[in-house]
């Protein structure tokens, strides 16, 4: 099944974030290693988000988090990624769920809500498809019928109706009684009836124009929101994602100019180290606090001194030198 188009705007998601999470998102909550714990913490927010937008994207949630809580780009990206992953986890559990007794309460509730939302979207798409097909068939039939009939000349009401017929249509008397009974009605009054009808028609057309202007204003507001989201995405792309360097035991990232920035590492309250880049807030990493302690206590590596030769080997070398000297002395004596 393909993805459904979401009708919610960036402003709606910002309002939902401020209403459900008025204190903002904390790294120690959304950076939990267990995704089901994250679902339990953000259950109410995720239910409101699914009702508003069943298929949220990381980019849209990131832009909304930056506007709602004035988060830095890295923290907003990490929060959005965890929320989208939690929704995908619940959707997968819902597909394989029969009763859901073995699932946590929060996961079961969100999986059930996602299944209901998906079914309603499928029914709505099928209804829209049937209605569109029926409208197209009726339009084609009417166009064929109009092409088969000859065009009739259009005539104005004043040219085809007499004075008596006009008075009868206005409810001022029967058509045949106009000659017998004098009617206290002038020709200008009938003209006033037609002018009133034209005024009503002009009012309806002006109402339609006002509706069109309102729709254009709404579309302009949506375009401004899209421009703001694109600007946030460009700001995100200027800095790459951070990674954990196992050699230096610290978090690093690459800037737009190609320089590599190291984060300041410190112990975290949940057993994992916290990384802090310059001008940004701290966030939890996958490096345990114990590794920072080991790095601080590790002594400097010293070169081992050269091993001394054993006494037996040294004595053997001296004996061999003496034998070579004696042999050279005997050779010299023989030559003389």
Structure commentary:
By secondary structure, the protein is mainly alpha-helical. Among the domains are: 10-122, no CATH class; 183-216; 243-297, no CATH class. Helix content is 62%, strand content 7%. It has helices spanning 10-20, 27-30, 35-41, 43-52, 58-69, 73-95, 105-148, 157-160, 163-169, 187-237, 289-297, 311-335; strands at residues 243-245, 250-254, 260-262, 264-266, 272-276, 283-288. It has a 3-stranded antiparallel beta sheet, with no helix packed on it. A hairpin with a 5-residue loop joins strand 2 and strand 3. Helix 5 packs across helix 6 and helix 6 (73-95) crosses helix 7. The longest helix has 51 residues, at 187-237. The radius of gyration is 43 Å and the shape is elongated. The termini are far apart.
Briefly say what this structure is.
This protein is 62% helix and 7% strand. It is built from twelve helices and six strands.
The helix fraction, in percent, is 55-70%
The biggest sheet, with number of strands, parallel, antiparallel or mixed sense and barrel status, is: 3 strands, antiparallel
What is the number of helices? 12
Give average pLDDT, whole number.
75
Q: Roughly how many Å apart are the termini?
A: 109 Å
Gross morphology is elongated
Low-pLDDT runs: 175-181, 183-187
Sheet/helix structural class: mainly alpha
Overall number of strands = 6
- Biggest sheet, spatial arrangement of strands: 1-2-3
Measured on Cα atoms, how large is the radius of gyration? Answer: 43 Å
């Amino acid at each position: 099944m393909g993805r459904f188009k979401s009708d919610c705007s960036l402003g709606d998601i910002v309002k939902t974030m401020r209403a459900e999470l008025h204190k903002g998102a904390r790294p120690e909550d959304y950076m939990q290693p267990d995704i089901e714990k994250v679902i339990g913490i953000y259950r109410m927010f995720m239910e409101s988000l699914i009702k508003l937008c069943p298929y949220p994207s990381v980019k849209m949630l990131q832009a909304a988090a930056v506007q709602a809580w004035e988060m830095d780009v890295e923290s907003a990206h990490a929060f959005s990624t965890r929320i989208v992953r939690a929704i995908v986890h619940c959707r997968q559990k819902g597909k394989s769920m029969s009763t859901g007794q073995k699932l946590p309460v929060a996961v079961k509730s969100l999986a059930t809500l996602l299944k209901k939302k998906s079914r309603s979207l499928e029914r709505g798409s099928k209804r829209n498809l049937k209605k569109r097909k029926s409208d197209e068939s009726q339009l084609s039939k009417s166009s064929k019928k109009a092409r088969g009939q000859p065009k009739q000349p259009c005539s104005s009401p004043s040219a085809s109706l007499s004075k008596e017929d006009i008075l009868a249509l206005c409810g001022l008397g029967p058509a045949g009684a106009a000659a017998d009974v004098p009617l206290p009605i002038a020709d200008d009054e009938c003209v006033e009836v037609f002018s009133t009808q034209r005024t009503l028609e002009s009012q309806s057309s002006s109402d339609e124009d006002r509706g069109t202007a309102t729709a254009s204003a709404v579309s302009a507001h949506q375009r401004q929101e899209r421009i703001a989201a694109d600007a946030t995405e460009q700001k995100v792309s200027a800095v790459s994602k951070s990674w954990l360097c196992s050699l230096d035991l610290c978090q690093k990232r690459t800037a737009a100019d190609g320089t590599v920035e190291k984060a300041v590492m410190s112990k975290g309250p949940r057993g994992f180290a916290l990384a802090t880049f310059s001008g940004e807030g701290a966030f939890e990493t996958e490096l345990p606090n114990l590794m920072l302690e080991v790095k601080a206590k590790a002594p400097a590596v010293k070169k081992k001194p050269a091993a001394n030769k054993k006494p037996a080997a040294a004595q053997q070398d001296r004996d061999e030198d003496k034998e070579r000297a004696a042999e050279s002395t005997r050779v010299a004596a023989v030559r003389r």
